[in-house]
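Key idea: predict the complex, not the pieces.
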Amino acid sequence: MALFAELRRRNVLKVALLYVIASWLALWFVQNTGDVLGMPPWAYSATLIALTIGFPIALAFAWMYEITPAGLKKSVDVDQTQSIVYKTGQKLNSAVAVLLVLGALALIGEGLLPKFEFPVFGPPEGDAPTSQSTPPEIRSLVLDNGLKIIVWPDHDIPNVAMYNFVRAGGRNEYPGITGLAHFFEHMMFNGTENHGPGEFDRLMEAAGSENNAFTTPDITVYTNRFPKTALQTVIELEADRLENLAIDPEMVERERGAVQSERRTAIDNNNLQLLFEQLLATAFVAHPYQFPVLGWPSDIASWTQEDLEQFFETYYAPNNCVMVFTGDVTPAEVFSLAVDHFEPISSQEPPAAIRTIEPEQRGVRRVLVEADAQTPMLQLGFHAGSVRDPLNIPLTLLLRILAGDESSRLHQLLVEEQQSAVSVGSLAPNGFDPWLAFFYLILPPDGDPQAVEETILAELSRTAIEGVTEEELTKAKNIMMAEHWRNLATIDGKAAALGNFEVYFGSYEALFAESERIEAVTVEQLKEAATIFRENNMTVGVLQPRRDEP
Amino acid sequence: MRCFLIGILALAPLLANARDLVPEPNRIELDNGAVFLLVEKRDVPLIGIEAIISGGAITDPSGMAGMSELVASLMQKGAGERSAQAFVEAVAAVGGELTASAALESIAISGEFLSRDADLMVELFADMLIRPTMSAAEMTKLRDRKINAIRVVKDTNLVSLLPAYGSAFLFGEHPYANPVAGSEASLQRIEYRDVMRYFRDTVVPNNAIIAVVGDFDSAEMERLLTAAFADWEPQEPTENALVEPTPEPAGRVLLVNKPGTTQSYFWLGAGGVAIDYPQRAELDVANTLLGGRYTSLLNNALRVESGLTYGAHSRLIRPSRRGLVYLYSYTQTETTIEAIDMMIDVLESFRADGVDAEMLASAQNYIRGQYAPRFETSAQLARALAMIEHMGLTRDHISGYVEAVGATTIEAVNEVVRTVYPSRKELTFIILGDAEVIRDQVARYGEVTEISITDPSFKIQKSPD
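Result:
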């Protein structure tokens, strides 16, 4: 009892209480601000261990020392009549009270108040969205070298999707180097100065990541889908290949073989693509959209080391890329790693703009392909606008009404009623530059491409004169809206959508204005969009089974 | 001291509570035998619905491969009060998706739609299953279109034909030989009365599992489904005793001739294992390493190291009985033999050398890292739940999988490699290409049987497919 009384007299118990409350506050602080201040992940456990070790030391200190008007003295040296432990005790009581109030406020505040934002010391926080319709948790950051990074946290599954959009595609090519953008997509997996050929994929897959890439007429997109534990590996390897790509001549030769095999599979032995390649080469006479993304076979066989080096330097600069991260990450951790790994990469002169504008078409163009086939094919292309054309959404809706799904006009007419086609589909323009409104049909073995073409033209002329009904427009809008939601149901879809809108519309936030833009479309706009369906604006491609030689 | 520590530990952040990959569904069984599995998932305003009906290609009547696929397609051609066009219009008008298709051992009807349209879409879904119009005229039209669709594939996507030729050649008279989409010849044999008989016997509530996942209130969805499906008439279950297949003798080559093609497509296969194979995780690790990902042994040898092809892969088909294991790739006609020999060498080395610690760890990480996104959307979860129940598995098949993969050992994986993957002399070959050029060369792999790609059947005729 005497010991307990002495513990009380020397304020040891109050110090203990104060210590516990102060520790709790300190841990709460570390837990809630660690990310913002860029503390390492082990900061919490380190603080906990330090505080635990400190506890007995603090108690011993309180027992052994005492605060006096003359300063700190050993308790045994203090004249008990002069002791001010009582006053010290009162101060300790006040401190306990203050800390308790602070603790209570912190707990309440955590639930009620908006999250306290600390000024940035470590990694940048990134910019919050400016529009109300954009999910507020998205952050974006432009590094000093011009690389833009967008992060959309989504903690539903412990995975991350990372997309790198490079503004280089088939439209950046010319005769002699057609297919180079696509070939480059392959070379980006074939070794750097730090990692030999095959190492990129080996390290990525060993960390649980699946990697791929695709090239379009406008852009090249690199995709990584990985568990969150692989974040650092993915960023390090992505930065390494942007900065230190080795274009090893031996690898170039091997990859040529793989691309030739890809071309044989995707085009030479696929009649749909074989005809499409010829149709594009006929519809465009000036603009590089005339080139196949995979390249003409003679170009694949002959591009040079110099072509490749030049292409890399021009297009694979950070200021020509947009990176998107979606999934189980925080903006702070992504930006922190990005500053370390991507920011040191130097920016380049922006690539020259594509100057060529496709001249107006002055009469129908036709191309015929003869191939080993059982089924004839028919494709129609009409010159239209770019993805940013004000009539692009109306045209997209119109193409859905005409040849989008099984309820569409041409499907009902040609496939269900007449049975003059096996299938019909359409593509809307989605490029930086004006592209085509495109219809593709497969006919039965005894099908008549000319008769089907006439039926389609009659239907398109009728549409241009009469337009579509409100019900048809509502249906097409609902399909597009449902697709919008389906795209955003996965982290992968989110990454693709954010990047596409950033690259094609200049801001990822345009994605979240898309539904309003769709809702606002009128039947009059669809009628206006239908004015492109003129014969003198049309290219017709027909694939016919090769007749046996006599 | 103890109290102090406990106090501090209590403040430690709760461990991130990862959601169970496949949540425990609310299970409802109606009097007519139909089973419903419901899970609420409210992150986006979508609902996924999946009905799995026991049936599929294994139940196609003899000589009528493609029957289940044809019936599935016909169920979409009008139902309830709606004509074929009105039905597809009703689905499209709300931006929904509703499709039916067959697989080897089941028919699946899958839907995805905005939650606000649940009433309408459940009505359409139920109409499709219970009251499809099944018109004779639509059936004839669909049958002709499906025949043409096979011809289109022969003109556009040769690699996708390999499994149809492979199964037909390997499984002989067993139902696993049936191509799910049928063949030009087998579809031609199907008459309307056969279709109606198959539909009446197969699409019945006591054969059906329906999973619904998404943005809805469970109690409300239960009321909706119960009302929609209560008057579905059950049928006496049909006898469906599927026997274990006995693969045809190995060492044979089926040469599919496509004159003038610049590329040869090849498929090397053998009998495999069933869905309940106990070393499933070990087998997945092995297959990931052999031909299941970009850095796999096959892709590394045939693509990365040699540039012979755009891709080389290995696949496992694990149905309710013993299935298939096969390897496939393609290369230009001139390098056909070089590529096939290389594929065999890779397989033989894999069987001899097995895996090492680094390979094992890498495959484990890869499988675990890629697993969760397969169960991300409502539609994916509905499909998974219905499939688990259909195959008689438990949720642990999915929820316990990542752990099982983590527990695999080098010894166990190597044992599986040697047992499951065929040796060279156990292989059966499908080679599709320009027979004029490669006919003599491929004879080294075994007795050659030749068929033209324009032949309306996938199998060499002993009995019709």
